[in-house]
Structures are given as C-alpha cells and as structure tokens.
Amino acid sequence: MKFMLLQDYAPTEVAAEFIGAWSPEDAAAHIEFQRQMNQRLTESGELVEAQALTGPEQAKFVVYDGVGAPVVTDGPFPEGKELLAGYRMIDVESLERAIEIAAEASAAPGPGGKPIKTVIEVREVMGAPMPEQ
Amino acid sequence: MSRTRDIEDLLRDAAPRVLAAVARRFGDFADAEDATQEAMLAATQQWPRQRTPENPAGWLIHVASLRVIDRARSDSSRRDREAAAAVREPRDPPPSPEHDDTLALMFMSCHPELTPASAIALTLRAVAGLATAEIAAAFLVPEATMAQRISRAKRTIKASAIAFRMPTGEEWAARLRSVLHILYLIFNEGYLTTGGPELARADVSREAIRLARIAHRALPDDPEVAGLLALMLLTEARRAARTTAGGELVPLDEQDRSLWDRELIAEGVELARVASSKGSAGEYLIQAQIAALHDTAARSQDTDWRRIAGLYAVLEQMTSNPMVSLNGAIAVAMFEGPETGLALLQPLEQPLAGHHRLHAIRAHLLEMAGELDAAFAEYETAANRTTNLPERDYLTMKAARVNERRSQSRVS
Questions:
Q1: Do A31 and B403 touch (CB under 8 A)?
Q2: What span, in angstroms and rounded, lies between the C-alpha atoms of A55 and A119?
Q3: Where are the beta strands (DSSP E) in B244-365?
Q4: d(Cα B201, Cα B49) in Å, to the nearest integer?
C-alpha cells in the first residue's frame, strides 16, 4: 500500500517554523533526524520518494478558463502556512505501519530536543484495481 | 555466464563509437542508430556461439554499415542517392580516429535546436553510452520519462534534417559553444545536484570529463575546450571535501584541503597554463584560471583574491552576467572588506531580484561586517528561496549560528 505523508509550514505548539531561529545544535539535530529517517526507510525498503518543496513565497497559483490568458497569482499568500512544505511517499504493508512512520516524523526533534509535533497528513495513494476472482 | 557479461560490457563500450562511425559515414543519425542496434543484436546472438572478433568495434561498424546499405537498397525513395554512394565505399570504412567520430556525434547530440534537457539526455545516452535507466536514476525521473525525452530528442533531430557532419565555416564556433555548454551542464548536474544517489551523480560528472577529454583530444589547440576540461578537473578535485559524510555542504574556505585530489589539480593547472599561452582566454578558460588559483592556495587565507577579482572583472565584461558580478563582489570583499563588497551588490538588486544567492552573499558579507540582525534576516530569506536541499540546510545552519552569536553578544 502506498501512502503520502504530507507536511505544511504551520508553526507547531512547540516551534516557530524557521529552524534557523533555533540553537545550532537543535537545528543540526533536526536536519540530521530527517536525513536519517529517509535513510532508515530506504534501508527497510519502504521509501518511494521524499521531497522538500521550495518556499511558499515562490509558489504560484494558476487558474485558466481555457480562453485568453491563464491567471497566474504570485505569493506571498495569506494562507502560505497551509501550503505543502514537503512529502514522503512510502510503500508499506499496512495503514498501521504508515501511521507509525507518520508518528515518527511528527516527533522530529525541535528546540531543546523536544518532539516538534508537526501535523502529518496521511493519505493512501489510489492503487491498481484488485485482480478479478 | 561471465562470458555473456563480458560481451555485454564490450558492446556497451563499443556502442557510441560504432554509432558515431556509422552515422558519420552515412550522414544520418536515425538510420545509424537503428543499424547499430541491429548489429549489437547480431553480436549478442553470434559472439557467444562463435568467437568474439578480434576487433569488436570494427566488426560492429562493418555489420551496421551493411544494414544501412541494405535498407537504402530496399528503400526506393532513397535508392539512387544513398545506395549508390554507399556501395562505392570500400567494404570497411577507412579508419577515422575515434575521437573525431565521437566529436561529430557530440555536435549532433548537443545541437542548438534541442532543449538543454534533451541534449543532456541524448548526449549521455548516445555519446557516453549510459543506459537509459542509469540516466533516469541520476536525474530522479522515471525510466519511461527519460526514454521519452531521449526519443523526442531523436525525433527533433530527424525532423530538422540536420546533417550528421562536422560543422564548418561560420557555424563552427557557435556549434562548438553548444557542445561545451552541454558538457558543462552535464558536469554540473553531476556535481551540484544533490538529489540523486551520490554514485549515480559522480558517474555523470565522470562522463562529462571523459567527453571533454575526447573533445580536447580532437581539438587540442582550442583554448576553450582545454579551459572547460581544466575547469571540470579543478572542480572535480574538490569533490571529496565538498560535503560531510552526512551530506552537509562545506564551503570552500572551510574545506579540508588535504582531501583535494592533487593529481587532478596538477593536470588542470597545466592544461589551463598551456591553453592560456595560446592567445586570448574565453569564459571557460578564465573560470579555470580562477579555479586554479583556489586549488593552489595552501590555505584559504593564502588565496590570491586580487587576481581572482581581476579575472572576474574580465569575465564580467565578456558575459555581462550579474552572477559573475556577484562572485566578483565576494572576491573584492575578501581584500577590501565587507563594506566594499556590500556596495558592489547594490547595482545587482534589480537583475538578481529574489535570487537566493544574492541574499546568501549579502548575509555572508553582513556577518563579516558584524551586522548580525541583518545577516540573520538575509540568511532566512536565502534559505527560503534556494531550490537545493543541502544548500537550504547549510543556510539554515548559518542563520542558527548567527542567531546564537547575536544572543550571546546581547547577554555580554
């Protein structure tokens, strides 16, 4: 089963969003945690893809009615904090395992090494139809 | 089993050379590619049963050439023109130096009508002989996507009816520029992008260097070709020191210089020196000269920043590229002080608006000048704007360290 684990920019109850405002040790620990987590998921054969997205100020919203020119809106957006910051796609045995991995990501170390408690959105990816009996 | 593996390796190594020779002989890339594929197929069937020929590439070129001729004969629309020409050829093509064939192939695959992404993919596939799966892995795209990109590039070439031959006369310089540009982009893909698996990326850079060596062998007197090769070698020499084991970027002034590859440096410096003696330097040679000055400084503080700033000034006049001016500003700041560097950034505000590198450099200079609050804000902006993850991590860490320094200075 494939799942997308999605993260946005919203500040959590324990941390402001810009990691550079933490102490260097805490920032380094957080960055290292993310790297090692991807490493572990690669080694367990569960990681499909992990990507971080560029910042919300570089986002563009595009709307097109099929005639004339598309409407392209540049940031910053008032809802910028709700934009996707990054994702992991995993291929796991069960929903339980997906939740376990999401929980691990949510507890990434924050300031003072305390779990940052980021909200991780877990969404199953549509798969191929089951073979007919 | 191992014999099959040997034959596969042999075929892979020979393929670009065979394709180049056949394409050059008949002047048609697409036909040559089909014929090369057929000859390779024939080899996988015949060589294990019989004996591997003593000159495998010669065998393949011969068989592929026969296929082209066969096809030309059966193709009535082209019979007169091509078959007649082909049949007059001797049974085996006159041997042409491998590097000339390969260079001709590069002129094709780096054609200015292709987008850079297509040209890069086609060059790695057709000239370097990498498998589509390997190229896809290095660029982090699905194999099917990469296969499509390559076949679209081939279709573009076919549709544009670009003749497969060495460019001549006035088109020569522009076409050579395209080749050098694509080789440079391939090298950078393998060096700068930090997304893919390290091995795959090192391979891509190595291929760019190998192809630049071939181009240099074919055109030993061209200072820009030598300059590009030297630039690649002098940059590649620092690869081991450029990142920590954890993948964190290490800036030039903090790198452990004992990890730099002395052989590559010696070769690059010598190449640049010889090329510089051959007349006026172009973009790549000047960049190689700058890289040579960095690579030959025993310690970061021994860097000859005045000469580097001078070279950037020449490069700036040549290219009027604001990124070059930005690099020049850092070099000047290194001996004139950060305030001078910051003043040099002012006119770059407009052309580089919002570019993360402008913010990163300004942050660095502000930090040097002791303006920590402004430096922190600039590091944050740069970190939010970069499109490269290790660079974002690096800038984030810089921000965190400046933040720590300013809170300490407030306390004391």
A1: no
A2: 18
A3: none
A4: 37
Is B378 an interface residue toward A (CB < 8 Å)?
no
Q: Which chain B residue has its CA at the smallest distance from A30's CA?
A: B393
Give residues 228 to 257 of B whose Cβ lies within 8 Å of A: 246-248
Count of beta carbons in the 10 Å neighbourhood of residue B157? 23
Interchain contact B379–A (C-beta under 8 A): yes
B245 to chain A, closest Cα gap in Å: 11
The amino acid occupying position B154 is: K
Contact A18 B247 (CB under 8 A): no
CA-based nearest distance B376→chain A, Å: 8
- Bridge partner list, A49: A89
Q: Which residue in chain A has the smallest CA separation from B384?
A: A55
ipTM confidence score: 0.85
In order along its 412 residues, chain B shows pLDDT tens digits of 456 767 777 787 788 888 888 887 887 777 888 888 888 888 888 888 888 888 888 888 888 888 888 877 776 555 555 545 554 444 444 455 667 788 888 998 998 889 999 999 999 998 888 889 888 888 888 899 999 999 999 888 888 766 667 788 788 888 999 999 999 999 988 887 655 556 667 888 999 999 999 999 999 999 999 999 999 999 999 999 998 877 778 889 999 999 999 999 999 999 999 999 987 889 999 999 999 999 999 999 999 999 999 999 999 999 989 999 999 999 999 999 999 999 999 999 999 988 899 999 999 999 999 999 999 999 999 998 888 888 899 999 999 999 999 988 877 6
Looking at CA atoms only, how far is residue A133 from chain B in angstroms? 31
Distance from CA of residue A46 to its chain's centroid?
Answer: 16
Its pTM stands at 0.82
Q: How far apart are CA A31 and CA A33, in angstroms?
A: 5
Note whether B385 contacts A52, CB cutoff 8 Å: no
